[in-house]
Each structure stands twice: as C-alpha cells, then as structure tokens.
Design brief:
The structure is a homodimer of 390-residue chains. The first copy, chain A, is α/β, with parallel strands linked by helices. Chain A is built from 12 helices and 15 strands. In chain A, the strands form 4 sheets. Chain A has a 5-stranded mixed sheet with strand order 6-5-4-7-10, sandwiched between helices. In chain A, helix 6 packs across helix 12 and helix 10 packs across helix 11. The longest helix of chain A is centred in the C-terminal third of the chain and has 25 residues. The model of chain A has no long low-confidence stretch (mean pLDDT 90). The structure holds a DNA duplex (30 and 30 nucleotides).
Chain lengths: 390, 390
DNA sequence: CTAGTTTATAAACGAGCTTAACAAACCCTC
DNA sequence: GAGGGTTTGTTAAGCTCGTTTATAAACTAG
C-alpha cells in the first residue's frame, strides 16, 4: 500500500499520457484531432505528440488516415481514436432463470450480447454455472475474441456478495448458489480482474450511467423481488456488503412467512403480492398479475386504484426513513413493476412528499431488460479505467 | 473546472513537496528526521532536502536545533516538524442555547476553546450572532492570533444548510435563524474558506475521527432533538443537503403535532418524550427526566424498563429501513440520551438484530460535550489539507 | 585516536516539458 | 496557377527537476 516510490520525470510522462488517454476516451467513439487534445489537456503540442505516439505503440490508440479528415482550411490534422479492441470487457448477468453475457470494447461499444434461459428447480446452481460457461463461450465467439484478450470482468448475481472474496453469502432465490465459488471459477478461466456484485447494485450503476452529473441515487429494482442500489457521485455504495436490501424492510402489520427467503416488503408489495392484493380486493377479471392491476388502475377501475395506492403507500412508508437519512436526488424504479407507468409513480410521489423533508424526484427507469448486464459492463469498464489511472 | 494546465517539471516539485508535507503531518506533532522522510516518501535525499527547504521557507515547517536530537551513533540528523501556528483553523458550534469556538493548529493541537451561553426566546437569532462574534474574538485573543491568520473556518449549526451557498434553509429550533446569512457574515470578517454545516453532521465527523479505519458510519445525536450524520470512508455524506434528518422519520401510530418544528420521531422518543412516556406509565418519583428513566431502568425498575424497551423498539423500527439501505458498519449514539448507558444500548441492539439482515454494531459515543466543535475543527482541517493537495 | 556509522552536501547526468522558430499541407482569391 | 492566409506538424535549444555517485561532516564506541 501507499507505493509512491521514485517520483521522477518518468512519472510526468505517465501522468500526461494518462491525461491524453482520458481526453480521447471522453470524446469516444469518434476520432479526435491532436490539436484538440492540446487544447483540452492544456499540454503542449510536443508533449501530446509524444504521448499519442506511446499510446499508439502500446495499442491503445489507432491513427486515422489523414486523407479522411474533414478539411478546415489548413494542414490536415492527425486524428486518433480509442482502439476499442485493445481491451474489451466482459459482463455477465446471472439471474435465477436467465443468464446473459455481453462484451463491450474500451469505448463502451457492444461487441457481443448473448442470452440463454436456465431452468430453475433442484440442482439449479449447477445448471446455472453450465449456462454461464456457455454464454461466455458464445459471447467470445460472437466477438471473435479469446479469453486472454478480456481486460476485465464483472458479474451480477442475486444475493449478497462479499466484496473482498467475491463469494456469494446469501441467495435465497437460487438453491445451492452460495456453495458455488463463482469468482474462483471465473478467475480460473480469465486472468483479468473479476468482480462479483449484487444484481440490484449493478442495475443501479446502469441507471446512474444514464443520468447526467453526480449526486445521490437510489435505484430500486421492483419485480417479484425488491432490491435497490445506492450510487453516490457515480460510485456504488456497498456499506458493509449488503447495502440496498430494501426487500427486507418490515412494513407495519403482520406479514406471513413464505419460507422462500423473501423479505417482508417483498412479500407485501412484490409483483406477486400486488396480484394477491387485487384478488382479495375483488378485482374483476379472474386471476390478475401485477401488470393487469396497473392497467386496470390506469383505465380508471377504482378497486385497482385503491390497490395501487395501498402499494404505493406501503412502499413510500418503507423507504421514507432511508430517504431521510440518505437524501437522494432521485429514486429510479426499474424491474417488472416499472412497466406500470405513471399510475404507480404518481401515487408514490404523493405519499413520499408527505413523509420526507426533501422529496426526491421519483422516476421510472428507461432501461430495458439488459439493465444488470449494462451495469456489469459499466463496472468492469470503470474498474479498468480506475486501474489505469492509478 | 478540470484545470490541469501546464503539467511540466514544476508540477513534480509541487507533488513531492506535498508528499513530504503529508509525511511530516502523519508523524505530527513530533519532529521527524529528514532521513526518515526519505525512507517514508521513497524520494531521494536531495529531493527531500529541497522540499523541506521550500517548506521551511514558506513557513510550513520549522527546523529543530540539531543539538537537541537524540544521538544514534552518527552525524546528528536534521529534524523538522509542522509549524502549527502557520495555519490555525477556527471551529464554531452554534447551538440554540450555547455558542462555542475553538482554534486548532495544523497538527490538531487545541490552541483555544471558548464557550458562552445565549438566551433563547424572541430575537434569539440576533443574540446568537452577537454571541458568535464574541466567542470568536475571545478565542482569537486566547490563541494570540489575528483573524487574517486563520486558514480555515467551519461552523456547526442546527437546521438544514445549503451546501453551495452556506445558507441555512430550515432551523426550527432558533427563530429567525434562517434569515441570517451566517456564511456571508463570517466571510466578511475572515478571508479563508468558510464552511457552514449541520451540527449533527459535524458530530458525525468527530465520531468518525475517533474510529480507526474507514467504512460506513451512522452517528446519531439523540437528545431533545434527534439528528444523524452519515460518514462514508471518512467523508461526510450530504445527499442533496438534508441527509441524516432522522428526527422526521414517522413512527407507526399517531403522533400529535407540537408546532415547534420538531419531527415526528423527535416528538415520540426525544428526551422530553421519554420523560412523558415514563410519566404516563406511572413511573414513581414525580416528574422524571430522561436520565432518571434510564437510571431507574438500570436499577431494575420494571416500569422504567418497559419504557426504555418501548423507546428502543421505536428507534430500531424507525432506523431499520435506513440501516438496510445504507448497511453501516456501526451506529454510534451521542447526545444527551447517550449518557443512558448500556440499558438503552442493549435494547436497541436486540430490536435492531430482529429487523435487519446485517445488524451494525451499536455503540455509545465516547465524546463529551464538545463533539460538534471537534467536528467543525476537523472539517476545517480536512478542507485545508484537501485544498493543499489539489 | 582510529574504525565504524549515520547523515549531509555537491557535482554530473539524464529525462521530460516548454518555447520558439520553421516547415508542411491545405483553401481561397486574384 | 501563383501567392497570401490558415491550420497543423516538426525540430532543436533551453530550463527544471530528480537521480546517481562521490565526498565531506559529525558523532559513538573501543
């Protein structure tokens, strides 16, 4: 730790080269004129030239043909861009039913995306692991890459993950999953940094990536299960490892056990519980699912509206203390329930305004199915760049 | 923003000088041999010599008389130490009833500490401001310093403070306080960085300073009012400005308004409310205050024990959602109620264990009355060092 | 008083950035 | 198509800084 040895002129070179690389990255994926880099970095032309030469040599950047540069009435500029293929990263989303893999290049361009379902049930852990290996293989093939070329890897999984070892400590939704050392398994195949992270946390990272600027964000994944991730100034907050587990908040009143490892709030306002509430409230139309309830509420059905309001109130009361302590700029709701639309949003906003000092903006996530995968790729990329600049 | 211009060899000098200063600071307040600095920083002897010369010249360090160095069988070493007086910082704690000021030197040695009471009531804001000016004057006198020598200033005040402007947005406990621009007032007298911060946040910073290492800490101030500060990896979490306002968490059940701006949780388990609960429960001994209730509970009185358990349960239920989201390593309770001792602690621990996945260590703060002042001085010092290394 | 140890000083060297002058390549106008 | 204007690239001199290496200083132990 604290290795800051030998601060001589070579360190300057490293610093400046890193600054140039960062500047190119910020303008990715398009090519950048060297003169532009001079302006942006504040370095002088010879310095930038030297750094670019080094970076091209090392494979980080690629020169563009001067013939193709747009003319602006002077000597044609040299242009460079990130050579994305130089360090692709692999992301994985290991869900209880689905496993997906994606590969992004340095500039966050998607090189491959593969998805595969895996049946649940007994021995699910084993099947999941096999599915993981398969999607990895297919993704590598699709991108035309070997495992050794991968520069970073991040995996999203349900459950609570130990930050240090990467071991999964608690994963009620996948039987046997805690006894699989996923991190170790992957490290056997890849010789790059491997990060295992809770899926809701990665989703939060993906959501934060969509939002401009920094600040505090609470990103809720609301489906059958209920989880959240906290992102502060672009960085994931892990707490002592289990941050964001809002599914285990206990709402007022008695919540019957289900024995499937779900938390009290999940059992009260998870997608399944919402359908149950509607059924008990006598919503016409047989056995509705959560989506049907929200649709009915949107259409004006007063029974459904009461159910939605009840759900929103419970949610707001459950998270209000966390909102008061964390004071996030926004709460973004994703997951299956997020497709509910504005009915739910308005109700949550209304209740939260009543329960907090500084009600955050409550929004629905605009991200589609691949949220966790996107977050995993983002984490892998972030880690990669972080290592570069240290 | 992003000014990183002109990265030439002079930057190296700045970097290395800063590294030397940091190394000296880490060994404060004792003097350090130059040879030791060479070893610690990894720089070479001539470089360290140059940096030390510069720092002595600029007044940051002072040389020690070689005659006084302990002999170790060789040429006597040059030794330097922080010249604390070079940049003292001023801390203020503006409470509703008491105002205190403190001055620390660079090495966090206390140079002055002054306290003064200010009566509440109408026109309290004006009297407070006068008291602030007075304690500042006396502290400066006590330390033998002029206002221009102060290198940093931080103020703790009740209420919610806007991070950008330093304006106080909400302060129910001091009438008229929001219309006083404290930050502006101080900036008129001092030409150093001025930070205004919520008092509970500063207390949290002080508590965090007492704890080794990093991690997530929820520091609760529990007295008549109830507030908290969140410290993550040594840095204060401000959220959008009002983080930690646990007094406004709404516990289950109806909480009558009192119209004095206190939040629902404060009205339920604040010091005054605890006494009220005991009175209503029929605790013998007339009109007890909170301390008496805790004392009776410790002594074995079952009525008092029921009250304490009720209070602890309410507290635990209120903060459990925040604990699940934040997953702090510890909750430290300070303020008047903290003097309750292990009765309260045990009860809170018990209830929290039942309501969270990963129950944090609940502890009592070891800090005395000056918690907020200590935090203010710490914030001012942190800011000062932060500015130096940028 | 000499040997050994620890520390400080000074000069030579090398790496890196900056300045400044100059060259290249292109557009436009006459 | 020749020359001026513009943007960009190239090169060499000069400066700052850290490192290396050799040498001197100051002290203790025996």
């Amino acid at each position: 730790m604290g290795e800051e040895r030998a601060v001589g002129t070579p360190v300057l070179r490293r610093l400046n080269t890193a600054a140039v690389l960062r500047a190119v990255r910020e303008r990715a994926p398009g090519p950048v004129r060297l003169a532009e880099l001079v302006e942006v970095t504040g370095l002088t032309r010879p310095t930038v030239g030297q750094a670019v030469d080094d970076l091209v040599e090392a494979g980080w950047l690629q020169q563009h043909d001067p013939a193709t540069t747009p003319r602006r009435g002077g000597r044609p500029a040299l242009r460079v861009s990130l050579r994305g293929r130089a360090a692709p990263v692999l992301g994985l989303d290991v869900g209880p039913h689905t496993v997906s893999a994606g590969i992004d290049d340095l500039a966050a361009r998607r090189l491959a995306a593969v998805r595969r379902s895996a049946e649940a049930g007994p021995a699910a852990a084993g099947r999941l692991l096999a599915a993981v290996d398969e999607v990895i293989e297919r993704a590598l093939q699709e991108a035309g890459l070997g495992a050794d070329e991968i520069a970073g890897l991040a995996v999203g999984t349900p459950g609570i993950v130990d930050a240090g070892s990467g071991r999964i400590l608690l994963a009620p939704s996948v039987p046997g999953w805690t006894s699989v050392d996923l991190s170790d398994h992957l490290r056997g195949r890849f010789h790059c940094p491997v990060q295992v992270e809770n899926d809701a946390n990665l989703a939060a990272l993906a959501v934060a990536g969509e939002r401009p600027g920094h600040g505090t964000l609470l990103a809720v994944q609301w489906g059958e299960r209920l989880g959240a991730g906290v992102v502060i100034d672009g960085r994931l907050h892990r707490g002592s490892g289990a941050a964001g587990e809002i599914g285990f908040i206990r709402p007022p009143g008695h919540v019957p056990e289900t024995g499937d490892g779900r938390g009290p709030l999940e059992r009260t306002i998870g997608a399944e519980a919402i359908a149950g509430k509607a059924r008990r409230a006598g919503l016409p139309g047989g056995a509705p699912d959560a989506a049907a309830v929200f649709a009915a509420a949107s259409a004006g059905d007063s029974t459904a509206q009461r159910v939605v309001d009840d759900v929103a109130a419970t949610f707001a009361q459950a998270v209000a203390p966390a909102v008061l302590v964390l004071d996030p700029d926004a709460i973004v709701i994703g997951g299956g329930v997020a497709r509910a639309g504005s009915v739910l949003l308005a109700a949550v906003n209304r209740h939260l305004a009543d329960l907090t000092l500084n009600p955050p903006a409550v929004e629905l996530s605009g991200l589609a199915e691949d949220t966790v995968l996107t977050g995993a790729l983002r984490l892998a990329l972030d880690e990669f760049w972080r290592r570069l600049s240290v």
